[in-house]
Structure formats: structure tokens, C-alpha cells
Amino acid sequence: MTRHPREPRGFDRRQFLQRSAAAALGVSSAGTLLAACGGDEATPAAGTGAVDTVTPEDSPFQLARRDNPITLPLFDDNPPIEAGLEPESGATLKVYNYIDYLWKRKVNEFAKEFDCKVEISTFSTMDEAVSKLAAGSAEFDVFFATVDRLGKLVAGKVLQPLNLDYVPNLQGNIWPQLVDPFYDRGALYTVPYVIWADGIGYRADKVTEDIASLPNPYEIFWEGGYSGKTYLLDDYRDALGMVLLRNGGTDVNTDDPAQIEQAKTDLLALIDAVNIKVSAEDYSKVPEGAAWIHQAWSGSMIAAPYYLPKGLDATALGFWYPSSGTGVVGNDTMTVLRGAQNPVLAHHFLNFMLDETNAYENFYNFNGYQPPLNAVTPESLVADEAVPENLASAVLTKEDYDRSQELLELAPEADVLWQNAWAEFKAGV
Amino acid sequence: MTLAYMVWAIVPILVAIRFSFNEGRSRSTAQGWSTRWYWDDPDLSVWNDPSLRQAVYQSLELASLAMLVAVPLGVLLALALTRWRGRGSGPARFVSLFPLVTPEIVMGTALFLTFVHLFHFVELGTPAQVIGHVTFSISFVVIIVRSRLLSIGPEFEEAAMDLGASPRQALRMVLLPLLAPAIFASFMIVFAISIDDFVISAFLSSDARTETVPIKIYSNARGAPTPALNAVASVMLVVALLAITLAVVVVRLVQRGRGERARTVEDFAQLNV
Amino acid sequence: MRSRQWFWASFSLPGLAWLSLFFLVPFYVILAVAMGTVDPIFRFPVPVWNPLEWNTQAFELVLDELGPSQTYGTVFIRTTAYVAAAVALSLAIGYPVAYYIARHGGRWKGLLLLGLVAPFWISYLMRMLAWVNLLQEDGLVNRSLMWLNVLDAPRNWLDGRASTVILGLVYGYIPFLILPLYASLDRIDRNLLEAARDLGASRVQAFRRVTLPLSKAGILAGCVIVALPMFGDYYTPDLLSGSPKTSLIGNQINLYIRGGPQVTLGAALVVVLMVLLLVFMVYYLISTARLARELDR
Q1: Do B44 and A120 touch (CB under 8 A)?
Q2: B206 vs A1: CB contact, 8 Å cut-off?
Q3: Which residue of C has its CA nearest to B228?
Q4: Nearest-CA distance from B124 to chain A in Å?
Q5: Predicted pLDDT at C222
Q6: Could you tell me which of C158, C165, C176 has the C-alpha nearest to residue C119?
Q7: Of B207, B224, B228, which has the smallest distance from its Cβ to A121's Cβ?
Q8: Which residue from C69, C243, C258 is facing A131, i.e. has the nearest CB?
């Protein structure tokens, strides 16, 4: 399904490039500095000899954490492609992604530039995607994986290691902490796609409380009383993670059964309190008024003004993310699958999407999810009229990213605990 | 009462069709009339959006293949179940009709697991989807053909055999022509059922090329779809209606040609199980 | 004679072979998965084919939570309740319609039947989405009800109500009930009814004493054809409600079976569901056999 792209308003490409070039220049030198000394408070230096206290002993793969960066294993029978190869000709590049996550026009531009066809297949949950990929039943070239599945995907030899010679756009354009991320030191298998934060999206014209000034803003779900208009994200990690934070938990990747059990109990309490519902369509439900309070991804709220019915403007929307302390952020990655029929084209596609203009236009004109470009800041986006001022809180800065947590891979036993808690909530007992 | 039922049944469909002709992007507020979602709109109309077009092709392809496999299997099965009086016929009947009452999520899951873990020679995607569609369609064919067989009765064949024909000849020259309307109707019913199937197609699909129209509707509808979705569903409705009407008309003509009373639809609704 | 029987019996071979391969075997596969193990990396199911090596852990987990106030028990009970309500409602609506067409259809029978079945040929999902449209706060249903003064203010039909889901189920499956009902009503010999009237019965008595009992087979068939698939429905609650309060067993199965660490649990749930349905199926078979015997007498 395609959407009609927003009309670019006052977006002058030359201005943007000038502005971003200046920013990039300032940062790219820092980038090389990083590679040289491996020092930056967000990403602990590799090879400091830190002991992995997170991964259980018998686990077939390592669990990445901010304070436990890992280098994904390379295998002899799964080598990266050679350098200097020509892109495949007359090919159909097959991309496997969430629905509505890539702007069609960008995809068409790529197809034209590389004289190929591009076919996008979609999945609705990461579980479903990994299940199909592991079954070996589908052949794709590019896969948009989330960080919390990388350990499994690499151990299961589903992904192929990247040859970064084909992806020069990675260095310089992208935030340094994502060029050499803790979950994939050296970017062996992944490059980042977009980043987001888990926050609260709401209808500013319907919600009477000032969410930001509440002592515990998450309480608005339980105490707000917006019966039938309160939604959680339909994802077991996001939803339970939010309850953990509301309960004052400090680790959203906990395997502590007591905390998970408490979170589940609190979730169940929501059913009676506000007739809670779940959805993954925060970007349309809030502007359309079906939801007045919705646990939301930041990118959805940036895209939301487009879905407003006539008579409402963006001031009717709001987004809250903790301005200090911790919250949940995340990022997607782009990867090349081991069974890719067109690996060279796949690498070029990754490089294409990391290009500043392409990434920015994909965000600005289509999915609203912020690419971790050095040139993008809340101020620059508001100035470009990409984001209305009252939604500027939905744009992440590097500092926001650094002080926040991520929903990361769980050990299988912990995963079972989480899934069971979620299933029990979903059963509405 | 019946009228009220008809109204209740048809209003949502009329609403859906109305919005497929909407000029604006809304699927719920009336915004003028236009055919843009069918073919005008350069990016998003059914005609111009390759993913929607592909979904239509895939639905039609699956339905055609399912038709060609399910009907012969079902006809043979129906013949056997009606004429065979032996001890195996009871269980055989049970097995033939069981798919009818099996929930689709059960069948979808079972087939998915089977093709992934056991029958590796069947790939997910079109081959798997065809097999799934055929499997649940066979029961419908059996019901339709059996009901016709029961109303025909054994007299014609027996007469033919009294006149010297072998059972095979009696079958070919007497019974099959008599059954032709039912067989034709089975083709159309399998076609129409297959077009509408969602669960089994979804479980057994592999990539975008094997997504059918119902899958597209489900995955896109939960977000913010355009009326192109209504348009594509209306297109499929028209195709299915044409198929059914064709079946009824042809059968009526054949029956009238033979001088039988044209009780077509009522006949098939007999559902002799 | 024997050879003739074999002649006909042989016709069933292709169909039965197909069904064995692609219908019966998959049931065994589900069992093998439910009783199987998981691979160490993805925790995806690894089926175990030999019954002697079956691992009952998944079943134990399911049975643990099958009690009336526990997770799966609650959902099973809720599903049964919704299906029962939906079938009852379908019967209440469908019987009069089928009766009318069978008895008073006359020349229009064919057309009416076609009109009956036609809605069924537009995508089920599209019809449900159309309902979502109509049930929205500013939708046609609310507007009509307010215009008729039945409602004072728009009601939020989509906030997770059982009634909306049940009506959705009825709407989706009712054609499958009406057809067999019509079939059996149509087959009732009018002479029997005339005889009853001749003997002095009123219309209502004739209906109660003649038509109703003779249509029992049709009622039973219709209910079974509708109820059993309803048990597996999961997208109706998804589309018409978003709330955990109305989730059905199909939703739970879908949650586990689509990937993630507990596919074996999902397979075990499927097996439990099928056992439940088999109980109903057997009840149906016994009832029809009994009815057939009564009618033959």
C-alpha cells in the first residue's frame, strides 16, 4: 500500500545540504577520532576486557547490552562478498520489511539508478519474519531486522556479514554511536535504519491533564479514566517495558520473575480501569480520535499530523518522552540475508538509504521515523517545518539516545516469561 | 423479516462499494464520486499499483489452480461415496467432510508446520497455497455433486446397463453428462471460495508476490488505507458474482435444453450430506 | 456385485489419498510438534515423530492453565459462550429467513437464494471493515439509532464489546447456517402439512408438530457447520474490538504459533481445541444417526 506523499513545504534542498554539510564536517572528524581511540561515553571501547555478565552460560549467542557490547561472530562458511563486484543486472531486489516503512518513491529512484526492479514484501511482527526466515522458506536480499533478534539471526546464519566497501555512506552521515554500535561492534552485519522512542502520544485537545508535569506521567494510563480511549502498543516488549518503567524498574530487559509478574498484574488492572485496548496503529488512531492516550513510537506521532481530519491541526497532538532519566529508545537495522540472490545490489541499497538526502526524504515525506543523521536535530526539523513545534519532543537528540535504555535480546527463558505474561494479559482473564 | 435480513446483509457491502468510488482519500466520509481508485490515480489505483494488481493476479491464479485440481478429485470422491456401500464408506465420508468443519486456523497451522518440517518438497507460496485451497474445497465439491447424484438416482445407469453398456460406459455416456451442471457449479463455487480465503493463504504465503487480495486488505486495513482497498474488494466481488451467475445461467440453459425443470439453485442448496 | 463395489470404491482413491496426505497427516504433524522439542538458537519447534519419544511438557503447561479461572480456561469458556450466543442468534434470524424462502419463495426462490448467498462472495474482511465503518461514533449505525430516538448519544460500539464481536460472527457465518436449513425445510413434503391441517391443526400447531421436528436435521447440520469454524476465528475480534476482554482462543493460538519462543505451546493449544471440537462432532454424528432412526420408524 502506498500513501500519497506530503507536499514538501518550503524544503529547499540546497539549503538543507549546505546546513548538513557543515554539521557533517564537524562530526566526521569526530567519527574518525572514535575509530582511532574508541572513546565516547555512549559506546564503551571494544576490547576493554569487560566480562559478559549478561549472557547465560549455555546460551548459543551473546546478549548485547549498552554496558556489554558484543562483537557478533563471523563464520568461515558464511563469508562476506568480495570487494569490487559489479551490481547484478536485470535483477529483482527483494526487500523484507514492515508495512509502510519505506517510501515508494525512494525505492523507485533506486530501481532506476541501478536498473533493476525492487519488490517489497511485508510482515506484521518480527516474530513472524524471523520464523519465515529461519524456516528457509523465503528468499529475500535485504531484511530490516530489529536489534533484539541479531544474536539469534547471526548464530543461526540467517544474515551475511557486510562488506562495508560498498557502504561508504555509513561513516560521516550517521551518529557515531550507531556507526559502531554496542550490539554489533564494527558494523559487521548491520547498518542502522531509523531510531525512535517509546513515549505517550495523546490528543492535547481532549486530555485535560498536563502529562509532562505529572509526578509519574505513565500513571495517566491508570488514573486518567479515559475509558475506551486508552491504548497500549500491541507488542509484548514495548507494553510490558512501559509498565516496568512506571513501576520504577531500572532494567527493561529484566529476567526477574517478580518484576515481570508485577508488571503483568498492573497490565491486567488496566482492563477494568480504562477498558484498555491494544493497537499498532498509533499514527492514525490518535489523530482520528479513536485514541486519546496511546503508548506511541515517536516516529508515529511525527507522521500523525498527516492523518488529522479536516478542522484539526497539529496542535491537537502531543507527545511526551521523559526529559531526564531513562526511557526506552530503539533502532532498526538493515541487513543482507545469507541467501540473498543479489548481494551486491543489496549492499548498494543499504548505501542508498544511508545517503543523507535519501534518508531525510524518506523520513520527511513518508514514515516520520527519524534517521540518525548528524544533520538532524529537533531545531533543524522544526525550522524545516518537518515537525510542528509542539511535537518537537518526538525528535531524539544524541543525548536522549545515550541516557535511555533499549529493548534488547532476552535469554530464551526470560523471553518465555515475558511472552507468558503478555499472553495472560491478552487473554483478558 | 427476510427483507430485513437482506438489507442487513447487503448494506455494508453497498457502503464499501460506495466508498470505492470516493473522490477523496477517506473511506468513511463521502467525498464525491470518481473512478480514481480503480484506474485513474497514477500511483495508488488498483490498475497502477503493482502490489494491488499482483494481489488480484495471485488470487485469480490460486483460484484457477484450486478449481482444476479440487473438482476432479471431488467428483470422483462424490461418485464413490454415493455408490459405494462397503464398510469403508462411512469413514471415507467422514474424512471427506471433516475439512468443512475444521477451523481455518487449525488447517493453516497444520499445513504450515507440515510443509516446513515434513514435506520439504512443497515450497511455501503458491504451491502450498494451492494445496491448502484444494484441501478445504474438496468437501464443497463432494456435497454439491453428491446432492445432484442423489436426486438423479440410479435408474438411468441401470437402464443403460440393461441395454448392454458396461459400468464404465454407463458412467461416461449417461451419468457424467447428467452431472455436468453440478460439475460446472462446483468449478464456480471452488473458484469463489478460493478468492475469499484469508487464513490459509496468509499462513502459507512466502513473499509479496504470493499475497492475495484478502491478505492485502487485512494487512493494510489496520493502518490508514485508501479507498483503493475498497476498489480491489469490489473488483473481486464482481469477478465472483460473474462466476456464480455464469454457473447458474449455463446450468439453467443445459437443463432447459433437456426439458428439465430449472430448479438449479434450489437443487444445489439441497446439500445432501 | 462385489466387483461393482470395488469399481466405485476405487474412485475414492485419488481424493482420499490427497486428503490423507494433506489433511490427516498435518494433524499428526501438529501432534508431533506439540510433543516435540525446540532448537537451541531460535527456540523454533523440532517435531518428534516417534510417539515413544514424545515430550509432554507443552501439554502440561496448557493443562495447568486450563482451569475455569485460569488463562486458557477463561478463553475457552469465553469462546464457547460467544459461539453459543452467535449460533443461537444466527438460528433466530436464519430460521425465519430459510422458512420464508422455502415455503413462500415460489418463483423467486432461486433469486432469493442467490441474494442470500451473494454477500458471502465479497471478501469477509471487507464486510467486517465496512462494519467498522458503520459502527464508528459518527457512523451510520449511531446516526440511524439517534434519528430513531433509540439512542440519545452516540455509543462507542468498537470499544471492545462482546455484543459487537458476537454480531460480527453472526454476520460473517450466517449464510452457512441458512443454506442447510433451507435445504431441509424445502424437502419437507407439503402433503404432510396439508394432512395436519386437514386433521384440524392450527398453523402454529402444524409448525410445531410437523415442520420443526422434520427440520431438526437441518438445524443440527447448520449449527455444526457454523459453530465449529467459529471456534477458530481470530480476526473478527481483531477488527471489531481491540480489547483483551473479547479475545478468543484463536487469538491465543495466533499469538504463540506465529513465531517466538513457544510455538509448541501454540500447537498444544490447537490439539486441545481439536479435541473439544471432536467431542461436538461426535455428538453431532450420534444425534443425526438417532434422528435418522426416528424418522425411519
Answers
A1: no
A2: no
A3: C126
A4: 6
A5: 84
A6: C176
A7: B207
A8: C258
Residues A309 and A333 reside in one and the same domain: no
- Residue A388 sits in a domain of what CATH number? 3.40.190.10
pLDDT in tens, A387-420: 888 898 899 889 899 889 999 988 888 889 999 9
What DSSP line would sit under B115-176, residue for residue? HHHT-TTSPTTHHHHHHHHHHHHHHHHHHHHHHHHHHH-SHHHHHHHHTT--HHHHIIIIIH
The strand pair at A190-203 and A293-297 is best described as antiparallel
Q: Do residues B193 and B201 make contact, with C-beta atoms less than 8 angstroms apart?
A: no
- Cβ–Cβ contact B189 with C under 8 A: no
The predicted model scores a pTM of 0.82
For the ranges B21-30, B154-163, B259-268, the lowest mean pLDDT is seen at: B259-268
Contact status of B31 with chain C (Cβ, < 8 Å):
no
Contacts of C181 in chain B (CB under 8 A): none
What is the dotted CATH code of the domain comprising B50-268? 1.10.3720.10
Q: What is the ipTM of this complex?
A: 0.83
Q: How many CB atoms lie within 10 A of CB C149?
A: 7
Cβ-in-10-Å burial (0-12, 13-18, 19+) of C188 comes to middle
Task: Could you please state the CATH topology (level 3) that the domain comprising C24-296 is classified under.
Answer: MetI-like fold (1.10.3720)
8 Å CB contact of A152 and C41: yes
Tell me: the pLDDT tens digits for C117-162? 666 666 777 788 788 878 877 777 888 888 888 877 777 787 778 8
Q: C258 contacts in A (CB within 8 Å)? A: 125, 127-128, 131
Is the same domain home to A300 and A360? Answer: no
